[in-house]
Amino acid sequence: MEIRVGLVGAGWMGKAHTNAFNNALMTFGPEAGKPVFEVVSDVSEAAAKNASEQLGFSRWTTDWKEVVQDERVDIVDIATPNAFHYEVAKAALENGKHVYCEKPLTLSAEQSLELAELAKQKGVVNYVGYNNVMNPANAYIKDLVQSGKLGEIIGFFGTYAQDSLLDPSLPITWRHINKFSGSGALGDLGSHLLSVSQFILGNIESVNALSKTVIKQRPVSPGSTELADVENDDLIVILANYENGATGTISSSRIAAGRKNYLTYEIQGTEGMVHYSLERMNEVNVYFTSDNSADRGFRTVFLGPDHKGYSAFYPAAGIAIGYNDMKVIEAHELLSAVTNNTSYTCDFEFGAQIDQTVDAILESVAKQNWVQVKNKGGVTV
Amino acid sequence: MEIRVGLVGAGWMGKAHTNAFNNALMTFGPEAGKPVFEVVSDVSEAAAKNASEQLGFSRWTTDWKEVVQDERVDIVDIATPNAFHYEVAKAALENGKHVYCEKPLTLSAEQSLELAELAKQKGVVNYVGYNNVMNPANAYIKDLVQSGKLGEIIGFFGTYAQDSLLDPSLPITWRHINKFSGSGALGDLGSHLLSVSQFILGNIESVNALSKTVIKQRPVSPGSTELADVENDDLIVILANYENGATGTISSSRIAAGRKNYLTYEIQGTEGMVHYSLERMNEVNVYFTSDNSADRGFRTVFLGPDHKGYSAFYPAAGIAIGYNDMKVIEAHELLSAVTNNTSYTCDFEFGAQIDQTVDAILESVAKQNWVQVKNKGGVTV
Amino acid sequence: MEIRVGLVGAGWMGKAHTNAFNNALMTFGPEAGKPVFEVVSDVSEAAAKNASEQLGFSRWTTDWKEVVQDERVDIVDIATPNAFHYEVAKAALENGKHVYCEKPLTLSAEQSLELAELAKQKGVVNYVGYNNVMNPANAYIKDLVQSGKLGEIIGFFGTYAQDSLLDPSLPITWRHINKFSGSGALGDLGSHLLSVSQFILGNIESVNALSKTVIKQRPVSPGSTELADVENDDLIVILANYENGATGTISSSRIAAGRKNYLTYEIQGTEGMVHYSLERMNEVNVYFTSDNSADRGFRTVFLGPDHKGYSAFYPAAGIAIGYNDMKVIEAHELLSAVTNNTSYTCDFEFGAQIDQTVDAILESVAKQNWVQVKNKGGVTV
Amino acid sequence: MEIRVGLVGAGWMGKAHTNAFNNALMTFGPEAGKPVFEVVSDVSEAAAKNASEQLGFSRWTTDWKEVVQDERVDIVDIATPNAFHYEVAKAALENGKHVYCEKPLTLSAEQSLELAELAKQKGVVNYVGYNNVMNPANAYIKDLVQSGKLGEIIGFFGTYAQDSLLDPSLPITWRHINKFSGSGALGDLGSHLLSVSQFILGNIESVNALSKTVIKQRPVSPGSTELADVENDDLIVILANYENGATGTISSSRIAAGRKNYLTYEIQGTEGMVHYSLERMNEVNVYFTSDNSADRGFRTVFLGPDHKGYSAFYPAAGIAIGYNDMKVIEAHELLSAVTNNTSYTCDFEFGAQIDQTVDAILESVAKQNWVQVKNKGGVTV
Ligand SMILES: NC(=O)C1=CN([C@@H]2O[C@H](COP(=O)(O)OP(=O)(O)OC[C@H]3O[C@@H](n4cnc5c(N)ncnc54)[C@H](O)[C@@H]3O)[C@@H](O)[C@H]2O)C=CC1
Ligand SMILES: NC(=O)C1=CN([C@@H]2O[C@H](COP(=O)(O)OP(=O)(O)OC[C@H]3O[C@@H](n4cnc5c(N)ncnc54)[C@H](O)[C@@H]3O)[C@@H](O)[C@H]2O)C=CC1
Ligand SMILES: NC(=O)C1=CN([C@@H]2O[C@H](COP(=O)(O)OP(=O)(O)OC[C@H]3O[C@@H](n4cnc5c(N)ncnc54)[C@H](O)[C@@H]3O)[C@@H](O)[C@H]2O)C=CC1
Ligand SMILES: NC(=O)C1=CN([C@@H]2O[C@H](COP(=O)(O)OP(=O)(O)OC[C@H]3O[C@@H](n4cnc5c(N)ncnc54)[C@H](O)[C@@H]3O)[C@@H](O)[C@H]2O)C=CC1
């Protein structure tokens, strides 16, 4: 079966998605459907045209509305900056399209819940690109937790830190302006960590957070002496209580010197512990109190065919998968849902869950106090 | 010059201190004075007697009061459980003795401030055994911070975790009862991390904390089915704001599976980052944004003669120092203060500072809200 | 420009190559030509048919001769077991095709030199799949060496170890029979390490080697009690002198418990050192004696846009590339050579160089003595 | 019981030994005897005098002969440069003293075998300071090997590398002149690795080695332009066959940039693997093929009370021991042998075994070929 893709936003992620669709076919085989690259849109004509050629789309346009209305499109793939997700996704859903939307789903829990509800009504596939959930490492860790091998879960301690915006001479972008981004490091990076934490441990109940804007102004353009205000968090730290009784901290930074892609966390249980860092993507460290005491220590487990999602790539353990491969597994799961009606984790309800946690965190920062996460699921507010 | 030591409490630390005095002499030479082991006391006669023989004290007693009053004693060395520090230290100070007291200084900031004030009046050396401050790694890191090589300091993220009390069949001890211990993981382990953080960054301004007692009851004795309540934190997590503008998290656990001596922290600056773990005691990881970009990465620096305190042990870098060596440096600094009136970091005021932070954290747990640390220095409350 | 590919051998590597051609286009853009999947052959009809569907070849056949003679084929891509490389490559060259051949090039230096000479005569692109050479990490390390930043090169110490054949119940395969494989761990894994070492340091002058077959017999089929002899090295260790004056060891094993994809090496220079392990593919460790001594240590450098080959994948450092991405860079370099006549490293002469080292190592094992590597280049023996 | 020590050579090791005797008493208790520091000698009057004061010896002298003849001396402790070991040890043995001699035992296997034989005749304790053998990590690894947990042993791959002599401006010393040192990196560092390898795996059968002097001349004194020849190996690499059937490589360097105390090795077995580095002294990495496959990986085991020698230092795992602590365990084992006639590993026969391996390696370098290790035990040549 052919699945016709209409892409909105032909930047980094637009390219990554298209790549991933292609590789999903070659990696997992054609049972999940064969992606066909129907139409690509971007506000930048050059970007749209170029994507059309390089990525192999049949047509291009600068008007995303054409994409969501196009009869020849099955999936609308949204890879624009955050602020446009809501409008495009809503229109796509209203036209009965399946929707594949980059994270975060929207700029607020309210919008996200609305989209989740709408998607449910329409009965279409609704997928948010929280690709870390598709990382075989995180799937393996979820198995460890759910199997009870780590005992009762006590704590989750995680951070997602990068130094991408540490240089104060980097100019202001949409990421620094709340009406375009919703928040700073929290929504951009922290949301990935939240997605992993909630995928594994379930909902967060309450949060208490503290945020900081270290670089308070940035040039309006490279080299300019005119400065504009940075509106959101460079750095955020959060205490969290989970519904399952676990507790811990979550933090995120876009100005952490030396951290490149440092999504890292540990999960403590009464009978074991696991820790992981995306910077060493192919290694999971796990400790079992049941090992005999003289020989007990964290085991460095390399990802391999025993871990869900890996074997489609390589026949043996320890052969490195990369970031893009998470997107390949994601694209395959999405195609599979469209073609074979299989279930998937990162639906809009999941996306709305993350956005509700984000909202509670922002509220906590403002109130300087504990805030309950609303955790409404799938119903219009 | 001979410095006559009177030891109170001949357990693990009592032995470690005596060992350290001896090694201080042999490692650093006699300029700081020659320790003489005058008298040891322990409530357990066997312990006192045994220590006298094995550690080489001239006399032993089961009554600590004899020690604090003994004219032949210069330094009273207090290595009893926490609850006795205050009483013994106070009596020793009143008798005009120099005092070397294990951490935490007392069970409350109030007591500690009182002792600090008294010590100041008496003009004697007053030293708290926060030995991590003497670790050449932490001294090096302080240098990195103070030199400005890391830029402006943004954040401190640290934890001190062990799994020593993870096994629920371990019986109740004084560590679980607040009137003996003051608090749980916080005072026992967390205070070490606080000492390092405050040594390097200065005072903490405000805290917001969350604690958990996971193993709520323990056998009254090994194998017993009779259970007693655990009164304090197995696990604690804290948001912190520093007076210097930095922010971050601090946590501590005595039930973290797989963690043995995991005192670890990172300090983020606008021009660099440093991270460290006591489990890899001889390595400091530091990153400088000024390194040229293709070759930039965390440097794994082995401790060596360039780092304060190391060269007395070994002539070349990378030869492992151990935990006890922190105590050796500590004992030497203390002897030096007594003999040559040199300055030192961990005086009672410093100890009271830590205890004030601890008190604020406990108050925050109770109030479930932000609490200001009092940060009174050297004055009776 | 379209480049029409004819694939011979549709196993793991056949799939990986086709994937790589596709991704090369999407990753690097169309300037290097657009691969078209013309025809695939495999002795197994099922494999050929399946590849045709899943990988998107227009036709399939069970007769590789059809592929090498097909006028619609520009590149013959050889991904069969080693023993067939020579025959297929020779026929392809004779038909004037560009040839992309998996490593090792053939079963002997003699055959490889013959092919190298023939390719030169025909003036076609002749490419051997030593993909580790395309790893941005190894390219970066070559830069470090050639820039002189590490000083004069003293030594190279490397190993490539896996435990894929440690289990003695795994049955005999072509890999254990010399007429099909040429050698054991040496030709299969060791040759990759040799390719990296020679890419960076140039030719090896002399070798002295020792090999071992630990599992001397294996079942003829899974579960069978009938056993067949393993003819070649499970484990090999080699002393080596390089033409540039460096010295060191090389080893390889297919029975090293716990090693998954442990291609690791260090290069020692008079002013620095670099070490690397493919199991942590995205990290290079480099040490410069010129760093100031208190802050000196191995730097853990994450691959990023500063390192050749990386930026086509990701816009920022530390986002993991994977094994397949080496093949993508390889496929792009190959396409580029066909389309734009650009130069490339892993030509058949390079392949013959590796095979000459392998031959000398095998001779050394037999003679139990030092053997000079012939290092003839590009001329028929 | 008092054990009276006469020290010859009051440099780094002289101090370390005396320290170790003291700590042995305090750490392990008095059952093994109480060391008394009787007399110290050094050719340098200042060194002897200073040691006497700082280390607490009753007397000092510049004539070592006084020490070996002194009736009040029980143990002659030899910590001079290598070239003097033979003469002093021989005289001490002839005077019926127990002898504690630093490694390597002498400058040749012949001398060492003679001393071993003499010691046996005299029935005294004869101890060589191969302290790595006393490292709890290596003892634990020996247990792993001997218990059969790693299966049949296949290979040993080790190196001992430092960069202490990488700087070419460092002047010539006795270490560079064979009549004083016997060899270069091999005897100084490599012998430590050999001691560990032979302690764990037993004798080496045959060797094939290659050595290099990279810095061929050095200033006769700091800053001088007059140069003297370096006579021995900066770097040595060795193929080795063990009597137990294992095979592997051994190497050593004193000019390996970035390596500080890099004594590292791995032992491969058919059912597991262990690897270790002295730079991370408190961690052993072990892999068992019997772990279930999804959760299998190298375990990072921190030293703790389960490992022989550790519990005298600390009550819990993961509290770092240091280099000096190996000497403490060594001194205790030695005292114990003197006082209680207990057995010990590093006797002169063991020392002679190492020296025979060293001799065979040097012969192999000269002959450029395989050489059998003589492995004579305890008999005059
Ligand atoms: N899952 C992940 O790991 C990642 C997710 N993202 C998410 O992907 C989204 C896109 O990010 P990037 O690709 O990095 O940004 P980008 O800036 O590289 O690309 C965005 C593209 O969208 C186009 N665009 C903007 N408004 C548009 C509109 N109204 N209609 C059509 N095109 C429009 C822009 O011209 C640009 O080409 C964001 O929501 C971001 O949070 C980004 C990076 C990683
Ligand atoms: N700086 C560090 O890293 C460490 C510090 N400590 C601190 O050292 C102190 C002692 O801890 P440990 O040595 O581990 O305990 P321990 O239980 O091994 O020894 C305490 C000793 O004090 C004796 N004692 C109790 N009450 C006494 C009294 N009134 N007078 C005289 N002796 C008395 C006990 O009989 C026992 O022998 C505590 O305050 C603890 O927090 C402990 C371990 C590590
Ligand atoms: N560069 C690298 O990292 C790697 C290279 N290789 C190399 O790739 C080659 C293939 O290895 P794999 O793909 O792992 O083997 P494979 O066994 O997965 O695939 C080989 C395929 O060739 C087919 N075949 C055999 N003889 C043939 C013939 N005469 N004509 C057409 N097809 C034939 C087989 O039926 C099979 O489908 C080998 O030379 C190997 O050394 C393999 C793995 C990794
Ligand atoms: N086990 C280990 O890890 C180590 C062992 N060593 C070994 O210890 C020995 C000594 O090395 P270091 O202490 O580093 O050297 P060092 O140079 O620090 O001390 C040697 C001392 O011996 C004195 N000396 C020289 N000839 C003498 C003589 N005939 N009589 C009395 N004193 C004499 C020198 O004046 C000097 O004070 C060497 O054999 C060395 O291989 C050294 C370092 C580490």
Q: How would the global form of chain A be characterised?
A: globular
Q: Are any ligands bound, and if so which?
A: 1,4-dihydronicotinamide adenine dinucleotide
CATH uppermost class of the largest domain in chain A: Alpha Beta
Q: Which CATH-level-2 architecture of the largest domain in chain A? A: 2-Layer Sandwich
Strand line-up across the major sheet of chain A: 16-15-14-13-7-12-11-8-17
Say which CATH homologous superfamily of the largest domain in chain A is assigned: Dihydrodipicolinate Reductase, domain 2
Taken in chain order, the helices and strands of chain A follow as EHEHEHEHEHEHEHHEEEEEEEEEHHE
- Assembly level: homotetramer
Largest interface comes to:
A-B, 43 and 43 residues
Keywords (chains A, B, C, D): Oxidoreductase
Domain Gfo/Idh/MocA-like oxidoreductase N-terminal (chains A, B, C, D): 3-130
InterPro entries (chains A, B, C, D): Gfo/Idh/MocA-like_OxRdtase_N, Gfo/Idh/MocA_oxidrdct_glycsds, GFO_IDH_MocA-like_dom, NAD(P)-bd_dom_sf
Protein name (chains A, B, C, D): Gfo/Idh/MocA family oxidoreductase
Describe it for me?
Four copies of one chain form a homotetramer. With 381 residues, chain A is of the alpha/beta class. Chain A folds into two domains: 2-132, Rossmann fold, CATH 3.40.50.720; 136-280 and 282-321, Dihydrodipicolinate Reductase, domain 2 (2-Layer Sandwich), CATH 3.30.360. Chain A is built from ten helices and 17 strands. In chain A, the strands form three sheets. Chain A has a nine-stranded mixed beta sheet with strand order 16-15-14-13-7-12-11-8-17. A six-stranded parallel beta sheet of chain A has the order 3-2-1-4-5-6, with helices on both faces. In chain A, helix 4 runs parallel beside helix 5 (109-122) and helix 6 (136-146) packs across helix 8. The radius of gyration of chain A is 21 Å and the shape is globular. The model of chain A has no long low-confidence stretch (mean pLDDT 96). Chains A and B meet through strand 7, strand 8, strand 11 and strand 12 of A and strand 7, strand 8, strand 11 and strand 12 of B. Strand 16 of chain A pairs antiparallel with strand 16 (298-302) of chain D, so a sheet runs across the interface. Chains A, B, C, D: Keywords: Oxidoreductase. Chains A, B, C, D: InterPro entries: Gfo/Idh/MocA-like_OxRdtase_N, Gfo/Idh/MocA_oxidrdct_glycsds, GFO_IDH_MocA-like_dom, NAD(P)-bd_dom_sf. Chains A, B, C, D: Residues 140-274 form the GFO/IDH/MocA-like oxidoreductase domain. Chains A, B, C, D: Residues 3-130 form the Gfo/Idh/MocA-like oxidoreductase N-terminal domain.
